[in-house]
Amino acid sequence: MLHNKNNGFNINMQSGVTAFESFDLLKDKFFQSWPNTTKITFGQSFSNNYTFCGIPQPSSWNIIREYNSNDVPWPGMVFGITISAIWYFCCDQMIVQSALGASSIVHAKSACIIAGYVKMLTILFLVMPGIVARIFYTDEVACADPGVCQNVCQSKYGCTTLAFPLLFLQIVPQNY
């Protein structure tokens, strides 16, 4: 069903991303998507430990981070993930079967390239709708206070798992 141009993934991605006039506007709105609890307690003397959890990090749009980053520093990205990616793509069942089942070397190379592009579509189908969901439903998806998160999604650790279902239920037509 993924070949249908009107499936839920495409509707989520297209309608969510096209709600913004430009990619720069999408980025600006992403950095402005602070939950209300963060906006209220930011800069207050009584602010709790969770105030800064709801603020998007300045490095959110950078794949290559600083060498001392807490997420994935650039040496880990270059040396660690590259080695893992080479192992993954060389041992991945989809790519191996495409190469072994090909009728010629050209077809094998083409199948590997197409399989790699299909894997890159994950960014369009999953990551971009997640960014749009954070912008549209900031208080639900980006809740920073465990008490608020518990009320929203019955989990005190965060409600990021609500991003795709919320966007899907609000944007996809009713009887789809």
From TrEMBL:
The keyword GTP-binding does not apply. It is a multi-pass membrane protein. One of its GO terms (molecular function) is D-glucose:sodium symporter activity. The chain crosses the membrane at residues 72-90, 111-137. One of its GO terms (cellular component) is plasma membrane. It is found in: Membrane. Its main location: membrane. PROSITE patterns: NA_SOLUT_SYMP_3. Keywords: Membrane, Transmembrane, Transmembrane helix. Belongs to the sodium:solute symporter (SSF) (TC 2.A.21) family. This is Uncharacterized protein. The gene is 106050349.
